[in-house]
Amino acid sequence: MSDESESPDSPDSPADGTEAPQGASDAVVAVAADAGPAESPAAAQSAAGAPTAAPDAGQEPDGTDLDDEAEPSLGAPTLDAALEAVLLVTDQPVDVATLASLVRRPAGEVAGRLEALAADYASAGRGFDLREVAGGWRFYTRPDCAEVVERYVRDGQQARLTQAALETLAVVAYRQPVTRARISAVRGVNVDGVMRTLTSRGLIAETGHEEHSGAILYRTTELFLERLGIRSLEELPPVADYLPDIELLDEFIGNTSSGD
User: Fold this and answer.
1) Do 166 and 183 contact (CB within 8 A), yes or no?
2) CA dist., res. 23 & res. 36, Å (int)
3) What pLDDT, in 10s, does the model give residues 187-233?
4) Domains in the chain and their CATH numbers?
5) Any residues with CB less than 8 A from the CB of 192 and at least 6 apart, and which?
6) H-only helix segments in 75-191
7) Close Cβ partners of 153 (under 8 Å, ≥ 6 residues apart)
C-alpha cells in the first residue's frame, strides 16, 4: 500500500503537522532578501562600540584641523581674589558686566560671588563692607568704624606745617576775613600753594567775597580753634607788640596790593 501523505519533515510543512498557509514561503524569502547581506564581523564589532581608527595626525581630537582656543586666563589665584583686587583699586562702583569682562567669567557667576563675599565680610565683622550701589559694587568702611576713620583723617596725618604755612595761617587768624592778595602783601611772597595746603587741612575756608574787588575772603575754621585749644578768636594771644603800627601796616598793604 502506497503512502501518499507528506513527510512531517518536509520543508514546507510546519513542525506541528498543520498545513502552512498559502504564500508563507514566499513571504519568508522576501524578508530574507530585504535584510540584505549579513554584516561582516568587523562591521558588527564596530557597531558594538569597538574603538575606531585614530584621526589623522593633522586633526584635533574633535575631528577638526583647527587648534582649540586656550581657556581665558583669570589673572589671579581665585575668582574671589580677582574681584577683591579690582574693587580695592577703584574709586567708584564697578558694575557686574565690567567685572565679568575683567575676570573672564560669566556675569551670573560673578554676581553670585559678589553677594557671597558681601555676606562673608558682614558675618565676619570686618572693618569694611562690600555694597552694591549706583548699579555697581564697591568697598566701604563700616558705619560703626566711623569714629576711628575720622580720627585718622583729622589727627592721623603726622606731617607738620612748614614755617611758611604757620606764618600764613597767623596772618589769616589775625586779619580775617582777608583776601589772598593782602596775605601775600603781608608776607611779601606768593601764598597760593600755602593757601591750598591750609584749605585742604581744613584750617581755613572761604567766607564770601570782598565788596569792592570781588576777591575771595578767607577765615579760620572750627578745626583751627580746636587744634589751638581755644574756644574763640578772642582767646588768641595779642601780637600788637610784635607788629608795626596798624595804620602804617594798612597803608603799606593798600599800596602794595593796589594793582591786584
Assistant:
1) no
2) 21
3) 989 999 899 989 988 899 999 898 888 899 999 999 899 888 888 88
4) 79-143 (1.10.10.10), 163-256 (1.10.10.10)
5) 180
6) 79-89, 96-103, 107-124, 146-155, 163-175, 180-187
7) none
